[in-house]
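Researcher: I'm preparing a figure for a lab meeting and need a structural model of a single chain. I don't have an experimental structure, so a prediction will have to do for now. The sequence is pasted below. Please return the structure as tokens so I can convert it later.
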Amino acid sequence: MNRFERFPESGGEAQVRYLDGEFRILRPGSFVICAVTGQTILLDELRYWSVDLQEPYSDPEAVLVRVLQRRLEG
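Model: Understood. Here is the structure written out token by token.
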């Protein structure tokens, strides 16, 4: 998502494609769910995600948890 795009007006969970430095809304909604914590993240507050895993994170700590989990998995 870039600064010229508008956030969708509808509520509910959005389906998002995570790209390098931006994201695209595939299905309108107002939030996504953190892949680690399960917290609701409003789209206008979404700052952390993985392009490779295509999942959002609520904060830097959640990113670190996911990185460490992946490292332990192999």
